[in-house]
Amino acid sequence: MRNTKAFKEAVAQTLAELARRGVTLAPSTVEDTIEKNVSAVAERLGIQVRSAWRYFDAAALADRLADSAHAFEESSTDKGVGQAPMPPIDNPELALVLAGVPDALAQTGGDLYAVIINVAVNAWMAGHIHGEDGCTGCDGSRGPAVHDWEARMRTITELQPDITKWFDRDVWTRAVNDAGYAVTRR
């Protein structure tokens, strides 16, 4: 279905309609939604997918997607959900995670997915360790030594003495470029 002219036109029309409504969604999200909707129409009506396209309305789909996006934003704001708190700019563990990205790109041959997973897991783990003192589920699992977050930060600082350089976008970009990669927008 995704290789058809009708599908490509439907995606383009829906993205244009969303832009008119001031909503930005990833093209893949729109593609998945269109594929699911057109397939559902074909199945429910007992017709072929190519015949289901006559029921497709880009403006109506854009309205539903925009309403859904706005409802999500409002419900998140109402419940106090917002941007996750960032660690201090001089956090040594965050610097270590950032510093590992260029090396990870080189080691994985540019596999951005593997690099993102690595960063996400390391960041999640760092956040968990930082918050362990307030984690009731961690009480019996830390062992006799417990985890001393301050000691961990001191150790990491000793391993990576120039922490602040990794928070400079130009330094980080040069390191990625030196690894043989560049991040460019299509």
Could you explain the architecture of this structure?
By secondary structure, the protein is mainly alpha-helical. The chain has helices at 5-20, 27-45, 49-52, 58-78, 92-108, 112-130, 149-159, 169-178.
Structural class: mainly alpha
Low-confidence segments = none
CA(first)-CA(last) distance: 24 Å
Number of helices: 8
What is the residue-averaged pLDDT? 78
Computed Rg: 23 Å
Please estimate the helix content: 55-70%
Tell me the major beta sheet.
Answer: none
What is the string of helix and strand elements?
A: HHHHHHHH
Number of strands: 0
What is the structure about, briefly put?
This protein is mainly alpha-helical and 186 residues long.
